[in-house]
Amino acid sequence: MTHFLDIHKTSPDDLRGIIDQAAAMKSARAGRPKGMADDEQPLAGRMVALIFEKPSTRTRVSFDVGVRQMGGETMVLSGKDMQLGHGETIADTARVMSRYVDLIMIRTFDETVLTEMAEYSDVPVINGLTDRTHPCQIMADILTYEEHRGPIRGKKVVWTGDGNNVCASFLHAAGQFGFDLTFTGPSQLDPEEEFVGLARRAGSTITIERDPAKAVAGADLIVADTWVSMHDSQSSKERRHNMLRPYQVNDALMAHAKPDALFMHCLPAHREEEVTSAVMDGPQSVIFDEAENRLHAQKAVMRWCLGV
Ligand code: CP
């Protein structure tokens, strides 16, 4: 079974193949209306379940559109409307879903829901975000970086703020795609040591630098994310904002990076908090290309999972 659970669980060759296919599929449909089918229909006759236990705009719409462009059909399910949250085990849910659909994408809180779903499913399972990782986002980010600046291998990526689930998948990608990553944020919000260790063992230079100006010196790419993620309690908001304010990405911080450095944010963003509008809407920002590339990258991920 070919699941897409995390970037570090997928081989570098397969990851490269997915990125290359995403780029080829994007270019093949350049200029077409969004609703027009691709020339190739590799998902014809396939049914894809999209399960959401958390809110989503990009993941939900991009997966749904992507399946349709490739000739498949989708059913979008909310976790709270399923038996998933009402006592039926994940294992039983996985076995039942496998009798109806060809592919499952799930966005959930606890990583063990994803891994148990994959363990008991007879069809491929894709990670659409857990509290710990967000691999589809980073596949789109790699595609975006490379279409603007060429190969990401050997580049310096700087993650600012909270070492959260998106940061975790960037660390996984550093190891698999061969780039270096500097984390700059308060020590209370450092990324998980396990993931830092994984990237280092894969040969990447992973640096923790508390001073954001020093961190971004020589950066090829600066990345920010919301200061309060979906799984963080709202009661922690003020404390987190106070800790994270020095790490806001603004014009002054961008000026310390390379002149052609790109800015990324997976969105949704909180303007004037983790990043200013001047940076988000400025010439170095590629945030809406990232959002678009969720569609292309995930189409390639689904083809890889299904072997079609
Ligand atoms: N970036 C991202 O995953 O967006 P959504 O939460 O809207 O899906």
Automatic annotation (TrEMBL):
One of its GO terms (cellular component) is cytoplasm. Carbamoyl phosphate binds at residues 56-59, 83, 107, 134-137, 266-267, 294. InterPro entries: Asp/Orn_carbamoyltranf_P-bd (IPR006132), Asp/Orn_carbamoylTrfase (IPR006130), Asp/Orn_carbamoylTrfase_sf (IPR036901), Asp_carbamoyltransf_Asp/Orn-bd (IPR006131), Orn/put_carbamltrans (IPR002292), OTCase_ArgI (IPR024904). The keyword Cytoplasm applies. Its EC number is 2.1.3.3. NCBIfam families: orni_carb_tr (TIGR00658), PRK00779.1 (NF001986). This is Ornithine carbamoyltransferase. It comes from Tritonibacter horizontis.
